[in-house]
Specification:
The structure is a single chain. The protein is mainly alpha-helical. The chain folds into two domains: about 10-55, Arc Repressor Mutant, subunit A (Orthogonal Bundle), CATH 1.10.10; about 60-220, Tetracycline Repressor, domain 2, CATH 1.10.357. It has eleven helices and no strands. The protein has helices at about 10-25, 35-45, 50, 60-75, 90-105, 105-115, 125-150, 155-175, 180-185, 190-195, 200-220. Helix 6 crosses helix 8, helix 7 crosses helix 8 (about 155-175) and helix 8 packs antiparallel against helix 11.
Length: about 240
């Protein structure tokens, strides 16, 4: 493909979208750790320098894709019917199951979440990191609102805490529950190794069940120390 400079905002937006779509497709074939800017540039059909006209680094591309994947996940969650009956414990367990099972069906999102703090936020400018954090806050606010529709007993602060627990459970569990080829090969031969393998959705579900039960039991309004949850500065526009 011969490079042609995108001259309008629409063309630049299309070029960025193409880069993100190509990155997402690559992550269905390989983990975040193995995705290189050189290979991405080749698949996009642009020189690496031209890809960097649209994103300042590989990590900036992946952070933007994380924001997109979160929005797609939230849109899916909006389609789940809200429970109309059941005890808080029953509805809390159902919410935990919905979150865990829907995350398990999105391996790209889980891989990005697991790499977010340790890798993706380490090679970007302050401005890119700041925009990502505001986009993440918007997603967490939406997830907190959804959680309260399923479980009104959760207060505003506790619903927001649950979003943090969800991210931590998914991010921490994902790399441990993606066994190497060597371990997979050992499963049929060693029942001890097999017993050590656990299911990602089960681990996240159980973690969230405990977290929700604990939040409902405590019902304390501990300040988060992060400022108002409902306010996004007007100069921060959603990309």
């Amino acid at each position: 493909m011969n490079f042609q400079r995108a001259r309008t905002d629409e063309q630049r937006s299309q070029r960025r979208r193409h880069i993100l779509d190509t990155t997402a497709a690559m992550l269905t074939e390989m983990p975040v750790a193995k995705l290189s800017l050189n290979e991405l540039s080749r698949r996009v059909g642009l020189a690496k320098a031209n890809v960097l006209r649209y994103f300042e680094s590989r990590e900036a591309i992946l952070l933007q894709l994380l924001d997109v994947e979160l929005q797609d996940w939230l849109a899916e969650l909006e389609q789940w019917p809200e429970p109309v009956q059941g005890t808080p414990r029953e509805r809390g367990d159902r919410l935990a199951r919905i979150l865990a099972e829907s995350l398990a069906e999105r391996p790209v999102l889980c891989d990005l979440i697991s790499a977010q703090a340790a890798v993706l936020e380490r090679n970007v400018s302050a401005e890119v990191a700041r925009e990502h954090k505001y986009a993440l806050l918007r997603s967490y606010q939406s997830l907190a609102q959804l959680a309260r529709r399923h479980l009104p007993e959760l207060g505003k602060e506790d619903a927001f805490r649950l979003t943090g627990f969800t991210s931590l459970a998914a991010g921490a569990s994902w790399p441990y529950l993606q066994p190497s080829q060597e371990l997979v090969a050992a499963y049929p031969e060693d029942p001890v190794v097999v017993a050590m393998h656990v299911d990602f959705a089960d681990v996240v579900r159980q973690s969230l069940e405990v977290a929700i039960s604990g939040l409902l039991t405590r019902q304390e309004d501990v300040p988060l120390g992060a400022g108002p949850l409902d306010t996004i500065p007007p100069h921060i526009e959603q990309k």
